[in-house]
Amino acid sequence: MALADTNSLFELLRNGDRGALARAITLIESTQLKDRSAAADLISLAMPLSGKGIRIGITGIPGVGKSTLINSLGAQAIAAGHRVAVLATDPSSTRSGGSILGDKTRMEDLSRSEQAFIRPTPSSGHLGGMARMARETIVLCEAAGYDMILLETVGVGQSELEVDQMTDLNLLLMIPGAGDELQGIKRGIMESADVIVLTKTSDSKKEQLNAAQSALANAIPFLPMRESGRQPKVLLTDALAGNGITELMDHVLELHSTDRNNGHLTKRRQDQNVHWMQHAFREGLLEFVQQDPEFAKAEMDLRARVRDGAIGPFQAANVLLEKIRKGDVPLP
Amino acid sequence: MALADTNSLFELLRNGDRGALARAITLIESTQLKDRSAAADLISLAMPLSGKGIRIGITGIPGVGKSTLINSLGAQAIAAGHRVAVLATDPSSTRSGGSILGDKTRMEDLSRSEQAFIRPTPSSGHLGGMARMARETIVLCEAAGYDMILLETVGVGQSELEVDQMTDLNLLLMIPGAGDELQGIKRGIMESADVIVLTKTSDSKKEQLNAAQSALANAIPFLPMRESGRQPKVLLTDALAGNGITELMDHVLELHSTDRNNGHLTKRRQDQNVHWMQHAFREGLLEFVQQDPEFAKAEMDLRARVRDGAIGPFQAANVLLEKIRKGDVPLP
After folding, report:
1. How many beta-carbon contacts under 8 Å exist across A and B?
2. φ/ψ (deg, to 5) at A162
3. Are B63 and B40 found together in one domain?
4. What is the ipTM of this complex?
5. I want to staple B82 with a disulfide (CB 3.0 to 4.6 A). Which of B77, B144, B231, B254 is the partner?
6. Residue B288's CATH number
């Protein structure tokens, strides 16, 4: 894409053209080499306009009611004058076409609003790549005037730790009930929660709600303190019935405004940016070295020998490092 | 050190000479370039003789009673015919001479036994370096015939995640009592525990013990499942009074033998070895690149600009990667 085209795409985007925003995100997500420089240009243009949004991570196991809550929360924010962008990184939302449709149905109010933008983030490619896309998409959405970014992610694997490096605040959604279904909550998720939201509370008996709240009250003191110095509060919601949504939104806005006023938000975002620079450099450096076929083969062989116990892991790493030091890996 | 000297040091070591083992570990820990090849030779010699030990991580906040428990557990193991090596990575054990002395006093039985070897691991240097030393020290100890390795670590920071990459099983020590002191338990520690050990139980009232057990019973279901498919059991001990030590040892040996028989132990150790190879390679590669003063300066400048928001993190990473691609970083 020529620079003039990139500039005009960006002009449309900053004036709130949703089609232009969608095309810009597609460029960011493109794996084709020819799109790289246009994508980088777009980000450079968008950067100065970004940063004003409230970035909220929303996580929880499939079925916990993320889409329904996002729909209610988003509609509430729009009614209060916000413009809302929803980025769905839930792989189950993107794995099949049917599922995306499912999400659109569950986000009915938002998908009908002119003030909302919904975008599933591709789950293909490696996690680092997805993280980069999600971060750059946030920048584009903010440049397009969206001042509330809801980043949906499914609570499995490491993704929530990456999300914690992009958001200002995180909500962890849980269904009240027996402890068993909470087993799905993986390493790090509870630790990165600023608010724990019990969902679908109308479906639960009073005793179930009490048991869930008391189990959480017992578990929360075991969590490490968030950098903000807080531990998560537990809130009850029923998005379909519209219960608890106002209270949740008020609480989130209050936390955000506190963090903004006491400087925590600025520091958090600065740290996040340095994290992403280092992360991207490390990934890129590794990728660069591994693209040498001879090196890749040597690494694979050594990995197998390490697994067999034929060579120690540090010795194996040294064999690889020697290749770099000697210049066996050709550097163009 | 000439190869002949290395060989004779190793012969002494494998015949159980504790002085030789201590000297070998000192070589491993040496930061001097001239010791590197002797250290590598020693590890190569020791590798085939290693792997037969039971590797147990013992973690908990300072004051929880790690040394006292290690003393009792170790004495029990020696009585059952084991040879016990204690590697103390607790920085508070090594920070001052007085503290090491303190540890020796608290490990009185062990420090008097011919079948025990106690070694504080230096906490100086970066974590990766410490991890490497600890891993290589385990290899040397096993080659010297120690078949039970107790790896003590203080439960702060990331160290316990690194320890989880070296051990077969981990014990997390906690003092029963009000929830407050448990705040010290950091990210990842509870998740890497195979057994939670309540210590100093004679000092606690019955109600305190009950409260601690019930708080843990509530918190444990929120932990992710260990790869072994287990969740930690809570055991009560009083090392000074000798209570609960036999039960703890029996439980640990049973877990270890289960893991050995069902193949989990082999897989865990193979995965650990691949982890350390990759970890050491990444660290080494980064170190290699950063040792170029011009690159280091560019990185520092970019970090500051990223923090200020003057440049995006991914763009900054690309600037650095371009330096590598162009060969601006001289490779000898």
Report:
1. 180
2. -70, -40
3. no
4. 0.77
5. B77
6. 1.10.287
Distance from CA of B244 to the nearest CA of A (A): 25
List, edge to edge, every strand of the sheet that includes A54-60.
Answer: A116-120, A84-88, A148-154, A54-60, A169-174, A195-198, A233-236
> Min CA distance, A140 vs chain B (Å)?
12
Under the banding of pLDDT at 50, 70 and 90, the label for residue B71 is very high
Q: pLDDT tens digit string along A191-240?
A: 789 999 999 888 888 888 888 888 788 778 777 778 888 989 999 999 98
Smallest CA–CA distance, residue A321 to chain B, in Å, is 7
What residues of A are in contact with residue B179 (Cβ under 8 Å)?
A: 221-222
Question: Are both A126 and A85 inside the same structural domain?
Answer: yes
Residues of A in contact with B324 (CB under 8 A): 285, 288, 331
Q: Which residues of B touch A282 (CB under 8 A)?
A: 282, 286
Which domain-ending residue is among B13, B31, B49?
B49
Is B282 in Cβ contact with A282 (below 8 Å)?
yes
- The Cα–Cα gap between B90 and B151 comes to 9
**Host domain of residue A185:** 51-262
pTM of the model: 0.76
Tally of domains in chain B? 3
Residues from chain A contacting residue B51 (CB–CB below 8 Å)? 309
Average pLDDT, stretch A35-40? 86
Cβ contact B321–A43 (<8 Å): no
The beta-strand segments (E) located in B31-184 are 54-60, 84-88, 116-120, 148-154, 169-174
Do A139 and A181 fall within a single domain?
A: yes
